[in-house]
Amino acid sequence: MSSEVLEDLLSKEIHDDTWEWWKSHLYFLREEKDFHEAEAVFKEFSMYRSRYNGLDF
Questions:
Q1: Could you tell me if residue 46 is inside a domain?
Q2: How far apart are CA 52 and CA 50, in angstroms?
Q3: Cα–Cα distances in Å, from 44 out to 5, 7, 8?
Q4: Count of structural domains within the chain
Q5: Helices (H) and strands (E) in the chain — how many of each?
Q6: How far is it, in rounded angstroms, from Cα 42 to Cα 35?
Q7: Is 16 part of a structural domain of the chain?
Q8: Do 57 and 51 touch, CB atoms closer than 8 A?
Q9: Which pTM value belongs to this model?
Q10: Which of 43, 42, 48, 49 is nearest to 26 (CA)?
Q11: pLDDT at 54
């Protein structure tokens, strides 16, 4: 396997882990009714997700 393929797999795994953390953190903040922090987290990681999907590269 080439180093480029390995880098892509690692990048995808990091993205998937980050996405799962983001969803669980957002759920926690909403449950705690910390809507301002939830909105800030949502905006920050929405931009991250868009960049990862190639929209801002």
A1: yes
A2: 5
A3: 28, 24, 23
A4: 1
A5: 2, 0
A6: 10
A7: no
A8: yes
A9: 0.55
A10: 42
A11: 55
